[in-house]
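CORE FACILITY INTAKE
Project code: CF-77B
Contact: R.S. (postdoc)
Sample description: multi-component assembly, four entities in total
Requested service: structural model of the whole complex
Turnaround: standard
Below are the sequence entries exactly as provided by the requester. Do not edit them.
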Amino acid sequence: MRKPTLEEVAIEAGVSKMTASRALRGVADVSSETRDKVLAAATRMNYVGNRLALSLSSQRTNLVAVVVPSMSNIVFPEVLAGISAGLDGSGMQAVFGISDYDVAKEREIIRDMLSWQPCAIIVTGLDQPEETADLLRHANIPVIQLMDLDGTPIDFNVGLSHGAAGEGMAEALIAAGRRRFGYVGSALARDLRAGKRKAGFERVLHAHGLGFAEQQIDDAFSSIALGKQLTTTMLAAVPDLDCIYYSNDDMASGGLFACMELGVAVPKKILIAGFNGLDLVGSLPAPIATSRSPRRAIGEVAAQLVRQAVMSNRDAMPKTIVFTPTIAGIDGYGAAGSAS
Amino acid sequence: MRKPTLEEVAIEAGVSKMTASRALRGVADVSSETRDKVLAAATRMNYVGNRLALSLSSQRTNLVAVVVPSMSNIVFPEVLAGISAGLDGSGMQAVFGISDYDVAKEREIIRDMLSWQPCAIIVTGLDQPEETADLLRHANIPVIQLMDLDGTPIDFNVGLSHGAAGEGMAEALIAAGRRRFGYVGSALARDLRAGKRKAGFERVLHAHGLGFAEQQIDDAFSSIALGKQLTTTMLAAVPDLDCIYYSNDDMASGGLFACMELGVAVPKKILIAGFNGLDLVGSLPAPIATSRSPRRAIGEVAAQLVRQAVMSNRDAMPKTIVFTPTIAGIDGYGAAGSAS
DNA sequence: ATGAAAGCGCTAACAT
DNA sequence: ATGTTAGCGCTTTCAT
């Protein structure tokens, strides 16, 4: 039993296809009597409209394509939740793809999604290779690049500077009296934003005549377990550090757990610093420093931009929305910084 | 500048629409010379096919609709990652929607997604209201219900019994000598699976002449912070518990942090038990009990079912895939249980 | 190996 | 207030 079409509903209701279409869409100029007949027929037949036909015919879709690199920590799911919430009530629908931090896969996903004629596309980061950027530019739809500001946007850009985040954290830690630093990271070859934070952090260290006394970097993706493991290794090799900077909060939380197991006082002996401002960090048994990135807000703002961009003149819109992370977890650095 | 159509590519290549279509799709019976001409023209013009037209014309799509209740902890993102990975290479594309544990919103999302004529739909849980189930049944596509087994599936079912998971955990804890139980949970009105675990747990308690000495339940959604807060409250009221069962691992982790702050020995004085088997739990500074649910595997298996169902005869396929959670974190309960 | 005609299910534009 | 015509961009079917 095939699914009923608009035409079949129209026949059942004793009207033309066009009238049925108007009634179903709630367009004006349909007598309430006719509308009721059509709605009744549609309900009776379990009619569900065909958006393929609708979109093909009307030359526009309600699809917003979104590409994120990963779903294995809570960061991108929160961005997606923000986008989804920000789109609520607009009639638009997000379509997600996961690139696994793989540029070739990202390009294929983008190509695939563009074939669905989305009304906008949201991608992560500014570092797409030229071929991918080309694809995006030729789509002739609003392109929103999320999370990162350190680079040249194609169109719209919502995020924060990871270089500056690294710099800010280093300055805060030096101001807090720390001098002997270690770095624990993972997957830096793929997670370019983590690399930018590290580079910013090192710029400030060098400006103060300092540097990382020790680094532990693994190719695997970040996790609490990996942070714990690398920290244990690091402290066995260089026990006299007074601060460790991590690629993110997952790694940093693992670092805290390693210190607790080794009986190293946090933050008294070693200060632990991560990035993201995960909820987890606020509940941990010892304070660790972090840069709070407004992940959900970034998603919501991206959704707002999409709504504006598809409605109104794109040229009259701000091209860049800058968020500034707040540093938390260092004495005397309560709630500095703000979003703008 | 509008996007080029197949017809324009065909003209540019000096062939008919049909030949261009065949060349682009790699269908047989196209001379390699012609194929090259068409491919060159398509590349030159940055041609991207229009899937709306393709799907409308061919009467089939590569879309798999997926509805999950939440993105605010790592559980469903992992399921989605499993689905996405399981679909890789099939040419199918997942489309996600988030219902926020709201049945009305879920129904609207499902209705919306069905209008895109997906080739299959994956939803969370077995407890959709009749109206939603009707929608699903009338779609005439494979319906896969995830995570839960305690109920009547519409079509295919992949998951675990949460009632049994609660029972198993209670038995393990009683076997481990615990007798004075507390319960800490959240959002039970919406998270029905958490409620089923609690009910199973209580069935076993009652069978042993026991019950919860104290309960702390909040309407908010689960989080580490909430688990910590409710546990602090609970231990202030009833300090002599020897075990607390939580609605999930996020809440349980918060409970552990509360105990650490209060100087309560875990697991010596109080044993803490959650559900999910999050990575986090394996790195925590004290052992807590959990039921490991194979979230990613559930997603991957669902994707496999979809691939089979759209290719072959649905009737010849298994209707239910049962996973059994493993209990971890209780002495003597190493790696009991297995997936089947 | 290639092309022409018809049509997927809907809406836009133009009648009436 | 309702109906008619044309067409969205592609594939299917049937020729050649």
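Facility notes:
- Residues 295-311 of chain B form the longest helix (17 residues).
- Chain B touches chain A through 58 residues (CB under 8 Å).
Invoice: internal transfer
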